[in-house]
Specification:
Strand 8 and strand 9 form a beta hairpin. By secondary structure, this protein is of the alpha/beta class. Strands 6, 7, 8, 9, 10, 11, 12, 13, 14, 15 and 16 form an eleven-stranded mixed sheet that branches. Strands 2-1-3-4-5 form a five-stranded parallel sheet, with helices on both faces. The N and C termini lie far apart (about 50 Å). Helices cover about 40% and strands about 25% of the residues. The chain binds NADP nicotinamide-adenine-dinucleotide phosphate. NADP nicotinamide-adenine-dinucleotide phosphate (NAP) binds next to helix 1.
């Protein structure tokens, strides 16, 4: 790029984030020009019924993709990079589903592909993992990467609302889409975790490698018990190194009060990174919103203007391990009669699941048992659970939720 000429930006999509980006760029262009020597300006805008993609690419140095989804975003981003344009995107599905192809295309064309806003909005997790921690052997990346579900769980805990009521409030406030499926079933967080795992462990990770569960089945009861036990419930994404491989998972999880992610409430996101040399880093902030997301997108544009960044390359082929180790909370409604606890203990014992604590409450003819297990392989716990569900004294489907046991200090 030659000095003093404006940097021309082709904008694909002018919706919530695209419009906020265009406004922010207008507002900050002089400042960016003064700082970098190149003042950014919009060369053209593509919307469904407006603009011509080829003309926009022809007249720009950087293409900013804010359309969302994979079709036609994938085609546009590949064509822009093959035409020698740097690309900035906020599109998690695109990067999670087509990462290999896109990173190869960026490398072959010698252009930058930046996507800070695709994970945790304006919280700079991608930059920290890819750049600040480039020389660090990261062992674990985990956090709250979906603001919609965090808002719903916070609302349920603070007001006693049901899942449906809290979802309705999230929709009224614009924290949840009209169709919230991808947020509440964990798929959105899974796409973000695939991206973080790929970057942290330098290995190809696709959406299919992530196992995920959502929050649709969480009841106010679970949250009330959690409160009594000093726990808070979060939808966590966890990517970690295990025995020569990695696991990447999304699941609802109870956290002890002292955990750094426990106080992260409402639509906020937070991500922790662990490595032997850094102990741990926690980053938190707004995970979505037009101006917030646009800020991350414009930050990427400034980075592109300012210089070269290392193009992401996978250096390893780490196997994805499906059976992780977890500790569980188990909620059982059973007939209140002698021998029940002994039979449950027998099933758990035969499956080598060890119990950390048990609380029993009477419910008239029935009783409620709330048990917390010690950490162990998930497959063992799941097989014990299947067996327990078939016992004749079990009155309702057992409810199991993971727990992070240790108290952070
Ligand atoms: N919203 C957030 O808070 C947030 C946060 C983090 C990341 N993101 C990501 O940012 C991206 C944009 O999200 P958004 O909320 O701004 O979406 P949005 O409001 O739905 O806007 C999408 C824009 O893309 C345009 N578009 C859609 N399909 C198109 C096509 N086939 N050809 C040309 N243009 C097309 C739309 O055109 P029309 O104007 O003609 O409809 C609209 O301008 C997504 O990847 C999203 O995941 C969003």
């Amino acid at each position: 790029m030659s000095v003093d000429e404006p940097v021309r930006i082709g904008l694909l999509g002018r919706g919530t984030v695209g419009a906020a980006f265009a406004d922010l760029l207008d507002e900050r262009a002089d400042e960016i020009g003064a700082a970098t020597g190149r003042r950014p300006e919009i060369a053209g805008v593509l919307r469904r019924a407006d603009g011509d993609f080829d003309e926009i690419v022809e007249s720009s140095e950087i293409v900013v993709e804010l359309i969302g989804g994979t079709d036609p975003a994938r085609d546009y981003v590949l064509r822009a990079m093959r035409a020698g344009r740097h690309v900035v995107s906020a599109n998690k599905q695109l990067i999670a589903q087509h990462g290999d192809e896109l990173f190869d295309a960026a490398r072959e064309a010698g252009v930058q592909l930046r996507f800070e806003a695709a994970v945790a909005g304006v919280v700079p997790v991608i930059r920290v993992i890819q750049e600040s921690l480039a020389a660090t052997e990261i062992t674990k990346v985990f956090g709250i990467v979906n603001g919609t579900t965090n808002y719903i769980l916070t609302e349920m805990a603070s007001t006693g609302a049901t899942y449906a009521e809290a979802l309705g409030r999230a929709q009224e406030l614009g924290y949840a889409e009209a169709d919230p499926t991808e947020d509440v079933n964990g798929a959105d967080a899974a796409a973000k975790m695939a991206i973080l795992a790929r970057l942290a462990f330098h290995t190809p990770v696709g959406l299919d490698d992530v196992s995920y569960e959502g929050i649709e089945e969480i009841s106010p009861d679970d949250i009330a018990y959690a409160k009594e036990l000093g726990l808070s419930l979060k939808l966590l994404g966890v990517a970690e190194r295990v025995d020569g491989g990695i696991t990447v998972r999304v699941f609802p999880c109870f956290l002890y009060r002292g955990h750094p992610l426990a106080p992260v409430e409402g639509p906020f996101n937070a991500v922790m990174v662990e490595a032997p040399t850094i102990t741990e880093i926690t980053m938190s902030g707004p995970g979505a919103g037009g101006p917030e997301t646009a800020t991350a997108v414009l930050g990427d544009v400034v980075s592109v203007i300012s210089g070269e960044a290392p193009v992401h390359a996978t250096r390893r082929q780490l196997p994805v391990v499906r059976d992780a180790s977890s500790s569980y909370y188990l909620h059982l409604e059973v007939a209140d009669r002698p021998g029940v606890l002994a039979q449950i203990a027998d099933v758990l014992g035969r499956n080598e699941v060890s119990v950390r604590s048990v609380v029993q409450r009477g419910l008239g003819e029935d009783a409620r048992l709330v048990m917390v297990m010690h950490e162990g392989p998930e497959t063992r716990f799941r097989s014990a659970l299947e067996e327990i569900a078939t016992l004749d004294f079990v009155r309702a489907t057992p409810r199991a939720i993971r727990v992070i046991e240790e108290e952070f200090v």
